[in-house]
Amino acid sequence: MSPNPRQAELVEEVLRVGAMSVEALAERFNVTLQTVRRDVKLLSDAGLLARFHGGVRVPSSTTENLAYRQRQRLNESAKQRIARAVAKAVPDNCSLIINIGTTTEAIARALMQHKGLRVITNNLNVAAILSDNPDCEVIVAGGVVRARDRGIVGEVTLDFIQQFKVDIGLIGISAIEADGTLRDFDYREVKVAQAITRHSRQVWLAADHSKFNRPAMVELGRLAQVDTLYTDAVPPAPFPALLAEAGVQCVIAD
Q1: CA torsion angle for 111, 127, 121, 139 (degrees, to 10)?
Q2: Does 238 map to a domain?
Q3: Do 228 and 193 sit in the same domain of this protein?
Q4: Which of 6, 42, 143, 182 could potentially form a cystine with 156 if both were Cys, beta carbons 3.0 to 4.6 Å apart?
Q5: Looking at the 3D structure of the chain, how many domains does it have?
Q6: Could you give the strand order of the β-sheet that contains 200-206, starting from the edge strand earlier in sequence?
Q7: Dihedral class, residue 128 (left if φ above 0, else alpha if ψ from -120 to 50, else beta)
Q8: Cβ of 137: how many Cβ atoms within 10 Å?
Q9: Are residues 17 and 103 in the same domain?
Q10: What confidence score (pLDDT) does residue 218 get?
């Protein structure tokens, strides 16, 4: 399904707090219990939320991410704020690698006025966006194209990325666990992201608030491998302490 604006906001609210009762959701959105129950059924059937008696919670799957179209709609305004903050920090005339993800695609849109960029990407959506910027050179990695999101993965992709050393590696992530582990769902995508972190002078991580304390199966790395984290809200405990210990600059997007 493609959630309507209220349903998308409902999912964001549940992702923010972890779980909510039907009554609390009805009060929060000023709608009837019947409307909330209908929304919750649709969203849970689509895999966006998980129902329990009297309420709804965040899905607990560690093996499968939400569908691409669903991820596009979720936390859309937060991703746009993060994208503007990242774009503000990216200087003209620099080199970047941008990986797979709806947040990195938002960042690509925010870079449309930059000049002199050289962007390497394994994301065909990012390539299509930035190819409309005449002052940006786009280099697309080879490999296997995933139909669901136009991400490019595989051994050929790894070999391609390893040829470069860029100024900034911009990566998205599916989950940041409470021990400081960065996680995602597809091991092939993770392998490429790991190569990006090794071949970037600065690693910038873009992650909205829903990524904190979310489980995922494959370990990408640790917070200590990141130079700057861009997010849309102050991270919950214990992440401020973990970020300080790892020496990661945390930028909260306005």
Answers
A1: -100
A2: yes
A3: yes
A4: 143
A5: 2
A6: 136-140, 117-121, 95-98, 166-172, 200-206, 228-231, 249-252
A7: alpha
A8: 14
A9: no
A10: 93
Structure tokens at 145: 């194209």
Backbone angles phi, psi at 118, to 5 degrees: -120, 115
| 18-47 per-position pLDDT tens digit | 778 899 999 999 999 999 999 999 998 887
pLDDT value for 1:
61
Q: Is residue 21 a contact partner of residue 10, using CB atoms and an 8 Å limit?
A: no
The amino acid sitting at 128 is A
Residue 132, judged by CB atoms within 10 A of its CB (0-12, 13-18, 19+), counts as exposed
* Tokens standing for residue 139: 């280099």
* pLDDT band for position 63 (cuts 50, 70, 90): very low
What are the Cα distances from residue 167, in Å, to 94, 97, 115? 6, 8, 15
pLDDT in tens, 89-122: 999 999 999 999 999 999 999 999 999 999 999 9
Domain presence at residue 65: no
Who contacts 232 (Cβ-Cβ below 8 Å, separation ≥6)?
Answer: 75, 78, 79, 81, 82, 208, 209, 252, 253
Q: Closest Cα to residue 98, out of 70, 78, 124, 116?
A: 124
The tokens describing 252, both together, are 């909260």
Q: Say whether pLDDT at 153 is over 90.
A: yes
Residue/partner pairs of 88-91 with CB below 8 Å, 24 or more apart: 89/204, 89/228, 89/251, 90/114, 90/117, 90/168
Domain that holds residue 45: 5-60
Residue 131 sits at φ, ψ, to 5 deg, of: -70, -15
